[in-house]
Amino acid sequence: MALEEKREKRPPVTPMMIEEEAALRNGSRGLPSGSWAEAAGPRPRTTERHIAVHKRLVLGFAVSILALLAVTMIAVLLSVRFEECGAAAGPPRAGGNGSLSGAARQPPGARQPPGRPEEKEEARGGEAAAEEKEEEEEEEEWQRRREPPPWARPRLPRHLRPLHYNLMLSAFMENFTFSGEVNVQLEVRNASRYIVLHAHRMHIEAVRVAEDKLAGGVRVARSFLYPQTQVFVVVLNRSLEVQRSYNLKIIYNALIENELLGFFRSSYVLHGERRFLGVTQFSPTHARKAFPCFDEPIYKATFKISIRHQATYLSLSNMPVETSVFEEDGWVTDHFSQTPLMSTYYLAWAVCNFTYRETVTKSGVAVRLYARPDAIRRGSGDYALNITRRLIEFYEDYFKVPYSLPKLDLLAVPKHPYAAMENWGLSVFVEQRILLDPSISSISYLLDVTMVIVHELCHQWFGDLVTPVWWEDVWLKEGFAHYFEFVGTDYLYPGWNMEKQRFLTDVLHEVMLLDGLASSHPVSQEVQQATDIDRVFDWIAYKKGAALIRMLANFMGHSVFQMGLQDYLTIHKYGNAARNDLWNTLSKALKRVGKSVNIQEVMDQWTLQMGYPVITILGNETTDNVIVISQVRFVYDSDAKPKDPTLGDNSYLWQIPLTIAVGNTSHISSEAIIWVSNKSEHHRIPALEEANWLLGNINQTGYFRVNYDIRNWRLLINQLTRNHEVISVSNRAGLIDDAFNLARAGYLPQNIPLEIITYLSEEKDFLPWHAASRALYPLDKLLDRMENYNIFNEYILRQVASMYLKLGWPMNNLNKSLVQASYQHEELRREVIMLACSFGNKHCHQQAATLISDWISSNRNRIPLNVRDIVYCTGVSLMDEDVWEFIWMKFHSTTAVSEKKILLEALTCSDDRNLLNRLLNLSLNSEVVLDQDAIDVIIHVARNPHGRDLAWKFFREKWKILNARYGEALFMNSKLISGVTEFLNTEEELRELKNFIKSYEEGAAVSFSRAVETVEANVRWQRLYKEELFQWLRKSLTH
Ligand SMILES: [Zn+2]
Predict the structure, then answer these.
(1) pLDDT tens digit sequence for 495-526
(2) Which of 537, 560, 714, 800 is deepest in the core (most CB within 10 A)?
(3) 95 CB contacts (<8 Å, ≥6 apart)?
(4) Is 840 left (phi over 0), alpha (psi -120 to 50) or beta?
């Protein structure tokens, strides 16, 4: 039976698939422009605005009475205000296509981005014509200067800096609109007539500029939104003067959108009644949709926020509420304390009717978890709340920098574009990643929840407190948060060894697959346009970032590394830092302990070059005790052309901290570190005897692969078979992963990895099994449609059989102490059961069938939580259509999110092509399958050898629909493309792929070039190595 049908249905352990979650965008983003009318809600009620304007007038009038002279000035001011806003003021245009941005004028020649409705020009008098002329002259002036005007550049001009924002919002939850008034205190660095700041998809009602603390405005000549760069431009009659400070006031309104970015809405059902909430997601470039601001991370400022809302709701923001002012009409305004200096994308607020539970850390930080009232009552947030308190204490101790705000709220929302977002003091989580009911949660679910929380809390320091200067170094915060997921989880569960073990399979091995393609990219990658910024949030940033940080921590030594981080956070707190700031601080920390490594020089090679090296260690037969170490860039397909032709593979060089040890049957030496920086080097290894083996990259702390001469591989295999414990658990896993991937890329004979795994029958640790299972997976996919597949299948079954017998099946009721004590054991058992059922172990099949039959006949699900996905999938693939229908029915009736997902994925395990086709077609019906789950359905059908061609055909036929739905969510789209294509492996399929790309060239180019490279490598492997593998297998099975 084919492997993938019964494989883990999710890529193994998903807690870090933040990027994937990042793409869970609402489908409406891809709507054709005509649908905008529906997406756009009603306008803000004009009465509300009139009341607000009226209040201001009354106040202004009272002041003017007291200071008689000011009357005329106010009159002047008001006239200026209405004059300057002539174009933008007036009631928002009713009906039409619903674009708020349409209400502000654009400069001549500005085109609407695709999908946005055309603007209507209002008929205006001679004044307007004069203004237009002025604009044209200005455009010409910029053209003469041969530079784009300041608003047309991808980055904000640098002449202004915001110091402080006062933001007053009114949220109208009954019609999903909000209005705001922002006052920005500006510092002028260079004189200029222009104010350019971000604002997108909003209606600007009024704008005013005044010299700070002085009455007296600076007259606004004109102002306009410029959607191409998502900015709002204020052109002044005279220049702002250097080193003076000014106040910019903007009054605006916008929609509380039904998409998951900016200030958006979401809903849930309580006691049969639908309730709404409004919440924000500003990272990376969406604060500009909620208020006009300098929306680049470098513009840190302080913020004072007030939110006015109906008293039936509560409001939350980064800081605690200072005062609440109640009005008679049932409205309330919450005034929040002022924030410290921070970047706009970490700002957040919410308007909801959630309830909460609270705890307080030793240092006095109040931690609250807010969620829908029924979840709070059930205690579903208690686990998260409890570990959050402990983790804040952990990080405060580790970084020696206290948590910076008086409180931290965790907000569990039903829908969110990311798994979670680390807004400072108000972190937002999607419910599945924070709510947990211990009685129905598997270990992997608990691990998911734990690691997401550890990740977001790390960001309160790496991100919120010290923020990367620009998005090219997003890995500086994401790599750290991802690395600390493992370190922090080790603090909570010391026996789990996450950083030393699980990190390898889930991060290092995982990302080396991706980064081994010639079409990869460096971990630091340049971006300018707002629309490109999403692209940097990918696995390379998260996982390679984390792997490089782990390598760094190991060659520095953990305690020096920790000291360096403490210095880095202390020096740069409340500010921004670039990678060189980190390297400098770490180099200084090393110097203090008497070591000298130029960290910047070393790390630049790892962060600015894509890919990674494979080191080859060869025993030198002519000279005793001398070995030859060489490095070359590892690529799966050596025929693949590098993306940048100026960078031939030969020019890739790294400074590699290679740790190395010598072993014999019962002993391994302590490790020595050798810095390898040339293509090839000779090194003397003391006490190297004939029967000794060499082992490189001790505990796999380095981000590279190691290859040896065959004699050394043989010695290592013997060692594993005789006494594997001489070699550490992490190196056992590392040897397996390296061997399979070296063979796949043609650096090593195909039989070596298959020989290595024969020792697994004695392996009692989870990690090597996990590594083997993951490494076998792509090999299985290369073979699963071959005639001779059963030879491979048979071989794997033999390796698994005895451990399967030894471990047996889990009992149904996992109690809590079991979760704590035997995570390794339970995960090992799960892994072995998965392999056994996948490759067709008869007992495993019977057991799965019995459990399913029992469920159907008793209608009680007694299947152990940790293996449910395996049992469902095996049942569907083995048993008749009735089982498929039963699972389908359960998928509809269950409300538990995690259960729903594994039921849906089990449906893709069928051998019946009609059922698979039916499922594919149903997957696009949003009523039946959530948009974000449809992708998983298609990918899982593609993993099934009986469905691969169906999914591939379906993908091509529905590409237009799929691309419209997910096109803007880059990560989602690239996941779909790679998921459907990665296991295509025939010449015919490669041709189909190339032809398909030719006819649909637009968009997703990066993903498609990666897909072509992967399929080319698959085809190449088939051509060159398949026969070699089968020959060896045949021989081995007859012995
Ligand atoms: Zn993160």
Answers:
(1) 889 999 999 999 999 999 999 999 899 999 88
(2) 800
(3) none
(4) left
- Residues 6 or more apart whose CB falls under 8 angstroms from that of 957 comprise none
Ligand 1 midpoint to CA 523 (Å): 15
Q: Position of tokens 């400098």?
A: 584
Q: One-letter amino acid identity for 125?
A: G
Kind and range of the H or E run holding 834: helix 823-838
Q: Give CA–CA dist 39/37, Å, rounded.
A: 6
- Cα R_g (the chain), whole angstroms: 31
Q: Indicate the pTM of the whole model.
A: 0.85
Cα 77–chain centre separation: 48
Task: Quote the ligand 1 centre to 467 CA distance (angstroms).
Answer: 12
* Average pLDDT of the chain, as a whole number: 85
Residue 12's pLDDT is 29
Local structure of 535: helix, strand or coil: helix
φ/ψ of 965, rounded to 5, equals -75, -45
Using alpha carbons only, what angle is made at residue 696 by residues 695 and 701, rounded to the nearest 5 degrees?
125
Reduced to 3 states, what is the DSSP secondary structure of residue 334?
A: strand
Q: Where are the alpha helices (DSSP H) in 441-527?
A: 443-459, 474-492, 503, 509-515
Cα–Cα dist 376/105, whole Å? 47
- Cβ atoms 561, 498 nearer than 8 A: no
For residue 474, the CA-to-ligand 1 centroid distance in Å is 9
How many angstroms separate the Cα of 400 from the Cα of each of 247, 530, 549, 759, 888?
Answer: 38, 35, 19, 45, 52
How many angstroms separate the CA atoms of 533 and 472, rounded?
9
Distance CA 897, CA 880 (A): 26
Type of residue found at 142: W
Query: DSSP code of 45?
Result: P
Mark residue 364 as left, alpha or beta (left: phi above 0; alpha: psi -120 to 50; beta: remaining).
left
Q: Which two tokens stand for residue 1035?
A: 């021989």
pLDDT band at residue 809 using 50, 70 and 90 as cut-offs: very high
Is 456 in the active site?
A: yes
The token pair at 138 is 């200005």
CA distance 83 to 94: 22
* Secondary structure E strands in 386-460: 407-413, 420-421, 426-430
Nearest CA to 522 out of 549, 542, 541, 543 is that of 541
For 929-981, what is each residue's pLDDT tens digit?
A: 877 789 999 999 999 999 999 999 999 999 989 888 876 666 778 889 999 99
Kindly give the distance from the C-alpha atom of residue 734 to the centroid of ligand 1, in angstroms, as a whole number. 27
Summarised one tens digit per residue, pLDDT across range 107-142 is: 333 333 333 333 333 344 556 676 677 777 777 888
Question: Tell me, what's the pLDDT at 443?
Answer: 81
Q: How confident is the model at residue 1005 (pLDDT cuts 50, 70, 90)?
A: confident
Distances (CA, A) of 287 to 295, 771, 893: 7, 42, 38
144-172: b or e for each residue (b if 16 or more CB lie within 10 Å)? eeeeebbbbeeebbebbbbebbbbbbbbb
Residue 982 CA to residue 1012 CA, distance in Å, equals 9
- Residue 436 pairs with which residues in a beta bridge? none
728 CA to centre of ligand 1 in angstroms: 31
Q: According to the model, what pLDDT value does residue 85 have?
A: 34
Q: What is the DSSP letter of 281?
A: E
Q: How many CB atoms lie within 10 A of CB 820?
A: 12
Helix (H) or strand (E) segment spanning residue 555: helix 545-556
What lies within 8 Å, CB to CB, of 921 at 6+ separation is none
Which residue among the candidates 5, 135, 181, 456 is catalytic per the annotation? 456
Q: Which residues pair with 281 in a beta bridge?
A: 262
Query: With contact defined as beta carbons under 8 Å apart, do 185 and 162 qualify?
Result: yes
